[in-house]
Amino acid sequence: MALNNQETAPIVVAGTGCPGPVPNMLDHPHGIFVDNQLNLYVADTDNNRIQFFAPDQKNAITMAGFGATVLFILNRPTGIVLDADGYLFIVESQNHRIIRSIPNGFKCLVGCSGNSGATSNQLNYPQTMAFDTIGN
Questions:
Q1: Do 31 and 77 meet the contact criterion of CB atoms below 8 Å apart?
Q2: String of DSSP letters for 68-102
Q3: Is the model's pTM score more than 0.90?
């Protein structure tokens, strides 16, 4: 569906309206990211996972967290962003950290101790993140 069409009726692109852990359900989704191919990435907070929905698909693929092919445990992810190279950056609220996808896995970038705080290497319940126009 084109983003600039004239239709005003809302359509459901992800989820069923009921919380749950199966591929077509979400539980308290927080952050979303839509790439230039209209793929939808969802921080499925209460299911502790990142879900990927291709256009016109109601069943998701789990990219990170509970149910993913690469085991990496998440604790309340609240934000998701892709960089220009297609790497995922996940904001994880309960573990007070930001992680990044790498080939064959994930790596912690900030807040890697898992403890909240106010020092330069700590976060306190982060919720979201974004890149500026030059990738910072």
A1: yes
A2: -SS----SSEEEEEE-TT--EEEEETTTTEEEEEE
A3: no
